[in-house]
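Team,

Forwarding the record for the chain on the shared tracking sheet. I've put the sequence and predicted structure together so nobody has to dig through attachments.
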Amino acid sequence: MKIDRVETFVLKAPLGDARFYSSQAAFPERNSLLVRLTSSDGLVGWGEGGQYGPPEPVKAAVDDVLAPILCSLPDASPAVAWDTAYGRTRDFGQKGTFVEAISALDIALWDLWGKALGAPVSTLLGGRFRERVKAYGTGGYYSHTDFDAARDLPALAEAAAGYAGDGFGILKMKVGLLPVHEDARRVRTVRETLGNDFALLADANHAYNAGAALAMGRVLEEAGFLMFEEPVPPEDRAGYARLRSRLDVPIAGGEAEFTRYGFRDLFEAGCVDIAQPDVCVCGGLSELQRIAALASAHDVRVVPHVWGSGIALSAALHACSTLPLTPYALRPVPLQNEPVIEFDRTPNPLRDDLLTEPLTLRDGYVDVPAGPGLGVEVDLDVVERYRIA
């Protein structure tokens, strides 16, 4: 498979009054970096990266360094391209921008390869265990940086009830922006609103030191939460291990980790019960397969992180469809042993409008696209609407 052309698109969609906050930042816009590859026989493949911060550095890594490498290869099949690109950038690109750039190119190569062979990416990855993936809604962000119980708790309860009304049976809410005792009130509000049978998860976006995370974890345990995501900074592996040994709520992390090498260290240090590689960040579909194999060897569940456009979501759906039960059991139980898909509910035109046929929730699940490659088509008018020259 020979690549003749590599194009990059920086997309930014301002949110206006719909801006929201996590523990780390305000979100006044949604942005991403899309890659379009054209093969020598005229086929096109799409990939995505550059979602976490400014996409411009990822664009530069693709345009100035990786695209010439890719176009020089006589065989740009995913395995060959990945190892060549990583090997030639290893001295300065083991984590961060260059791995995100490799991720975008890798996803696009799998999309292109699937179209060339007339097969879905999930088939090329080894086959599907499931045709649809149970989704959890990501919401419960902050509308303000301060806490006003009279203002915030009713709004949070209304939003949580809305997610349940949309058909979700699992919801992930944000914690970490506020003092633990104030976030505890938010946690209890969501639990009281949705009842004891509703599955709840929490994401701190690495807001805490280990001591504060332990206090928050006990609040989550009392409220019956099933996952505590990124409780401490990704560099604090000792803090992760400490929390995992002292809390019953499963500890999750890995969205800010890169390649099999980073996840190897995470697993060997006993940091997580649930690994969360992001296919657009960790090294693409090729590397997510390797991470999943390492996770299986350590009996760690894999629940991919998803934050991006419809390209990111479709790639993650294909990846999730190929993940086995961990551990194997006669009956699949979403999240307990079966992978689930993150279905972000914050405003994002790049997720909702970019594809000609958007990926939608149906009875609490999202269908895995069935067409060749990623199985989705990009609306070029939407690309141009949000493209930054």
